């Protein structure tokens, strides 16, 4: 079969469809030495070097159009720059680049070298960096100059001496490599570095309930599993212009701004802004004629509140959402304004799309959709038995019985074989999320089996916030939970028992909120603080966060 850009993705999968044209069969075809950098970016560059891979602009008025040919050129140069500083196969390299276009140069370059990419948010504080550096053994970092990131990294390096090289984008700083300046001098000639599809490629830190973030490792086959994301959930044609709202520090970024999108040969739109203003984003959709859009429900709520009917959004042909529960009212309002039905999906950092309202289906507002044909998804009770329709169960993935690898599923929790073994015990991967299934096979999200908070698209573990709050002299005990919010859907709440020296006040609320912002990533701070005389507990003395959540639902 001859391939052009429009059908290029078919080189890496077999597909089948039902009588309504909905995808019902998907088999990844992963070459043993598959490498997204060489086999996708460079191949499309060879076929159509002038095809636009990304339109990038920022809130300062800068704008760049990057073709696939230029992406090959710049990623080869970036790979040579990294290699000249001692970065090679298997090295863990952290990227803290907001939405700077240098993120795309860097991640693809690191793939080409066989290094392991570790994206992170610019909102991390010094102690967050120390933990991540030590836990993963980070060798190098590529940073934005903004938001005091270089200063915090330098402070972290006072406690961690394993960071061998630091790259700074957009500025010069003592002890750092000037990324932009040295990139200009780097060679654009790069010979293919041998890698295997099962080599470590990409790692994310993801929040849990009982400890610091886990390290989720994916191998080089992972991008192919995102063909479903782009082609059959986002429904992006090769001539599409797609915008997914996500900082590059989060897994959502490679879901919506890289792998699947470039596998289908489309153009990714990136708006690099400092603070979110819904009117700015609406203006970008209007100005650049975005054709498909994906964002958490919170963004759509802000659009509706802003008055999205005042903007010309007629270029939009498709809209999708994920990251938190979709309110049917938001679905209805968006449909009234645009004529587009929001197509919801569900997945995790550990997976690709597990469930979705795939292209061609009739969405049920608020439903996660049906299982992706890539996975054997099931709902089970505590004993691992499938539950009946209408009964709440845990969402799980039944792994291939022949012991073969489950495409799209994470390789391991890095440096934690016991947790990895537990997560995939008895041939089942447990997501920790619960749902129920209706008689038509649609899944409806209920909540977590643990206490992880999903707020505004972020996954937030209560342990980290509670640990910070407990260091404040005013806090004797605390419990962190998610609580309903009319605009953001869910926000972080801290229920606090004060020490005898302190009394409840608005001033103390502000003080505690600012304390958390300074000690850990600001997106985690509690927007709601409630002072109580005592926390609900079990007989054994464990805090019952479930009781606090139940009270908030009333």
Question: What does this 3D model show about the protein?
Answer:
This protein is of the alpha/beta class and 554 residues long. The protein has four domains: 1-30 and 226-374, Rossmann fold; 70-221, 3-Layer(aba) Sandwich (Rossmann fold), CATH 3.40.50; 379-450, Roll (Luciferase, domain 3), CATH 2.30.38; 453-553, GMP Synthetase, Chain A, domain 3. 29% of the residues lie in helices and 26% in strands. The protein has 17 helices and 28 strands. Strands 4-3-13-12-14-15-16-17-18 form a nine-stranded mixed beta sheet, sandwiched between helices. Strands 6-5-7-8-9 form a five-stranded parallel beta sheet. Strand 22 and strand 23 (443-448) form a beta hairpin. The longest helix has 17 residues, at 68-84. It starts with 12 loop residues before the first strand and ends with a helix.
The CATH topology annotation of the largest domain reads as: Rossmann fold
What's the CATH first level of the largest domain? Alpha Beta
**Global shape:** globular
Looking at the overall shape, the CATH architecture of the largest domain is 3-Layer(aba) Sandwich
Number of helices: 17
Set down the secondary structure blueprint.
Blueprint: E1 13-17, E2 23-28, H1 36-47, E3 52-58, E4 63-67, H2 68-84, E5 92-96, H3 102-113, E6 116-119, H4 126-136, E7 140-144, H5 149-156, E8 165-169, E9 177-178, H6 179-185, E10 200-206, E11 214-219, H7 222-225, H8 227-233, E12 241-244, H9 251-256, H10 259-263, E13 267-272, H11 278-288, E14 292-295, H12 297-306, E15 318-321, H13 328-338, E16 343-347, E17 353-356, E18 370-371, E19 377-380, E20 393-398, E21 412-413, H14 417-423, E22 428-437, E23 443-448, E24 453-455, E25 458-460, H15 462-469, E26 475-485, E27 489-498, H16 506-519, E28 528-531, H17 545-553
Helix pairs in contact: 1-2, 1-3, 2-3, 2-6, 4-5
